[in-house]
Write a structure and sequence with these properties.
236 residues; alpha+beta; globular; 9 strands; seven-stranded mixed beta sheet
């Protein structure tokens, strides 16, 4: 039985725009600086796909623009995988049945990946152990604006930032911090507790700067994709 392992995509870059925001809320998140400089990258997904595994093989194959009809759901397999960064089609996945609540087998439940996911779920002891096992990894904290009254604060490995953002429907996304796991997790918690962290970073950043963000032209927006994301940096 085929196993769907991940959503993948190809994308095109529509443009890059620079602007500055003052007193718009995001500056408070970044530590109370007088202004925030941002780069707006406008991207569009051009082709969605899935990574599909055929056990007992550990390899996966990309299936582009799939049409699915799911008849029934079988056994859940372990989520552990390994392979080169940024090349998901070269990853190899575990074929053992999952035994833990978070989807890992007995062999991989103590792996760095399993600990990192528990850390992202709010288990501080897992954050400490994951940092010890992989001290050189960099992480990014991001904010997703869904276009409503509330925004989501999230944490991901820095090299996966674009993928993680694309997996979640949004209007705009702001990357607000990059660093080690423990510091990134504390930043995520701080923003999550902030009233500003629920008010839509992308919209208020554009309004506060007095800029008009260019709208993308041509083509339709793919389901689950957003028109752009912001990289924020604090300036004095």
């Amino acid at each position: 039985m085929p196993v769907i392992r991940a959503v993948i995509f190809e994308h095109e870059r529509l443009g890059s725009y620079r602007a500055e925001a003052r007193g718009a809320g995001l500056d408070s998140w970044l530590g109370g600086g007088r202004r925030v400089e941002v780069v707006l990258e406008v991207l569009r997904i051009t082709r969605p796909g899935l990574l599909v595994q055929e056990p007992p093989s550990r390899s996966v194959e990309p299936v582009w623009e799939p049409l699915l009809r799911i008849m029934h759901i079988g056994v859940t397999l372990c989520r552990f995988h390994e392979g080169p960064r940024g090349e998901p089609a070269k990853h190899r996945y575990c074929v053992n049945p999952a035994e833990t609540r978070d989807g890992y087998c007995r062999l991989h439940r103590g792996s760095w990946k399993a600990l990192y996911e528990r850390c992202a779920q709010g288990i501080d002891s897992a954050c400490i152990e994951a940092q010890r096992l992989n001290p050189g990894e960099k992480y990014s904290v991001y904010v997703l604006d869904y276009g409503g009254a509330r925004a989501k604060v999230g944490l991901t490995q820095s090299w996966r930032l674009l993928w993680r953002i694309a997996e979640q429907p949004h209007v705009a996304a702001a990357m607000v911090y990059t660093g080690g796991l423990l510091d990134a997790r504390e930043t995520e918690k701080k923003l999550g507790r902030s009233r500003l962290g629920t008010e839509g970073a992308g919209a208020r950043l554009g309004e506060g700067s007095g800029s008009r963000w260019p709208r993308s032209r041509g083509g339709s927006q793919a389901p689950g994709s957003g028109p752009g994301w912001l990289r924020g940096s604090q300036a004095s």
